[in-house]
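SEQUENCE-TO-STRUCTURE ENTRY
===========================
What this section holds: a protein sequence and its matching fold, both as plain text.
Tokens: labelled as protein backbone structure tokens, with as many entries as the chain has residues.
Question of interest: how does this chain fold, as expressed in backbone structure tokens?
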Amino acid sequence: MNKEILIKQLLYRSKHRGSKETDILLGKFAEEKITNFSDEKLNLYQKFIDEDDLMIYDWILGKYEVADDYIQMVDEVRKFHNI
């Protein structure tokens, strides 16, 4: 898939999650950061946003232990939002 198309799809999916809170957290993060992601990081982000919306929100807020695959991604989102 074309990288530009993938980025557009991921941006859309980041902003239209199902809950406004996660839309904001992931949407703002993706708007600012996603264009600088490597192909590997884009693939990881794609897997990350395939996870359940509530689980992502709880990981970001520290309510649950983050799945090992996503520790770095969640840390980046937290740092971006000063959480």
Remarks:
- The chain has one domain: 3-81.
- The mean pLDDT is 95.
- The radius of gyration is 12 Å.
